[in-house]
Fold this protein.
Amino acid sequence: MKESCRIETLKPDEVGTVVSIVKNSFEPLYLIPSIYRGDGIAHFIAAELQNPYSMYRYFVLYEGDVLAGYAEYKIFENTSTAFLNIIAVNTQYKNQGIGKKLFLYTKNLFEKQGFGAIALDVYESNTIALNWYYGFGFIKTDTTPFYEVNPEKIADPDGSICLQNYPQYRVVQEQYGFYFLDMNVGGESFRIGTIGNDAIVRGSYSDRLSRGLPHIRISLQLDKVYFIGKEIHPDFVFIDRINRMELKINYDNKKSGEQGII
Ligand SMILES: CC(C)(COP(=O)(O)OP(=O)(O)OC[C@H]1O[C@@H](n2cnc3c(N)ncnc32)[C@H](O)[C@@H]1OP(=O)(O)O)[C@@H](O)C(=O)NCCC(=O)NCCS
C-alpha cells in the first residue's frame, strides 16, 4: 500500500461524504432496493455509529486527503459471515486499484477475526463488479430475479386489509427514508419493505397480496412496487437478476477446528 493511502473506520463527520460517494458511484438501477436511496440514510448511519452492539462495520479509504473509497459490511456471527452490503469508489478514482486495496484490507481483517466467509449480492448486469468479484475468488451461490410490479387493473382485495404498524412506519420512514409495513390481507400476513416512495416485496407474492397491493399503493401514496424472488406472476416486468456470491475465508483454520476470535 502506498504511503498516501490509509484505511480507517468511518467517523461521524465523514457520513455525508460516503453517502454521496455511493449515490454517485452506483448506477441508479443498482440502488433501487438499497437503503442508500432513502433520504435519511446519513441519519441512520450516524445513529448506527453510536450503537455499541452494532452489526455494521464501516470502512473508508483515503488517497492523500481525499476520501476515495467506502465499504459497509453487516456481520452475522451465527453463520460466521461478513456480508458486504456496499463497496464504492469515488468515480474519479475508479480503476486505480483503490477498491482492491479496500476489499483485501477488510477481507484480511475479517479473516483474522475468525469469520468463515464473505458474502454479497451483485446484479447480473453489473459486469464490472461481477468480474471484479470473480477475480477475488468469489463463486455464485444463488440467483434471484428482480422485477417491477405493474398490476394491469385494480381488483377487489380478497378480504379486509389491516396495517399493523402505521404509526411506527410514519415516524421511521420520515426519519430514515426506509422502513417496512406489517400488514394482513384477508388473514394472510405480509411484511413489505419501503424505500423512498417505493415498496419492495421479497420472497413470496401471493394472489391475496397481488389483489391488496394496488389499494395499499394508492392509499399510502406509494410510487413503484418491486419484487425480488423466484415466483412468477403476470404483473411482473423483469429488470435484472441479483446474484448471491460467496468467498470462503479462513478455510484452513476451520478445517483444523481452530476457532477465531470475533
Ligand atoms: C466495483 C468497484 C468497487 C471497483 O473498485 P475500483 O477501485 O474501481 O477497482 P480496482 O481498480 O481495484 O479494479 C481492479 C480491477 O477491476 C477491473 N476494473 C475496474 N474498473 C473497471 C472498468 N471501469 N472497466 C473495466 N474493468 C474495470 C480492472 O480490470 C482491474 O483489474 P486489474 O487489476 O487486473 O487491472 C468500483 O468500480 C465501483 O465503485 N463501482 C460502482 C459501485 C459498485 O458497483 N459496487 C459493487 C457492487 S456492490
